[in-house]
């Protein structure tokens, strides 16, 4: 992780040796190095780590809820719903992180509520939640496409650039605001983890121990939506990090089950920082949106995951 961050700070259109990268954070450093490293590259690298961690934890929460490795915000449709919320803000003329964050959180929560209500039948079943989420995601994707087609040129350009999922233009105010919000949301995780461990024994056993299953599941959904929306408000929808990070973390740590927020967060951070490095340097003359890279890598991972799950079953 540290090596990837240092590489992100060092390499770019203007490669800077590691010694000068570290010196750029000290008083009296060269002005150009300081501007490139501290003002441009550092918020992007740190933002990638923070946003990747948020997506990883969100994926772990939803995979725990659904008890299915395919249970993640991008599969269930929460990313798409958050994107719809931001498109509504763009259509209303809103700008800035605060407006986008409000739109993303609102869109994500409304989508989660819709999926939850449609999937609820004498309790919340994981597989049913995934199927309903895929259907809602398809509907919202078509609505998002319709908006981009019907919008004026300026709105369509803003929506298309933001919707690709990119870390371009990330600055310190966005990273610090999102990071502070993520820390506040993360304060719920220790309380939630204890109740999740009880739910994994079975809902009846959890009730005997005083853990109400449905309220805990609802809180789990809210926390997962909050983490996803914080990221989507800044970067746009970035797919497959939430899907892959918890699964990879469990394999690395040789865990077959259980909610592992720390492992999922670290793995998500590594995946997004590494994916952004690939996005910046894959083409010699231009950079790609990191969302395009994660879709390519995640698509291959999803095929592999489906293949291995099929063999296991």
UniProtKB/TrEMBL annotation:
Pfam families given in the database record: FecCD
Cited CDD domains: TM_ABC_iron-siderophores_like (cd06550)
Subcellular location: Cell membrane
Transmembrane feature ranges: 47-65, 86-119, 125-149, 218-245, 257-275, 287-307
Any one of the GO BP annotations: siderophore-iron import into cell
UniProt-listed SUPFAM superfamilies: ABC transporter involved in vitamin B12 uptake, BtuC
GO CC annotations on file: plasma membrane
One annotated GO molecular function: transmembrane transporter activity
Topology with respect to the bilayer: Multi-pass membrane protein
Keyword Membrane: yes
Similarity-based family: Belongs to the binding-protein-dependent transport system permease family. FecCD subfamily.
Name this protein carries in UniProt: Iron-enterobactin ABC transporter permease
Native species: Kocuria coralli
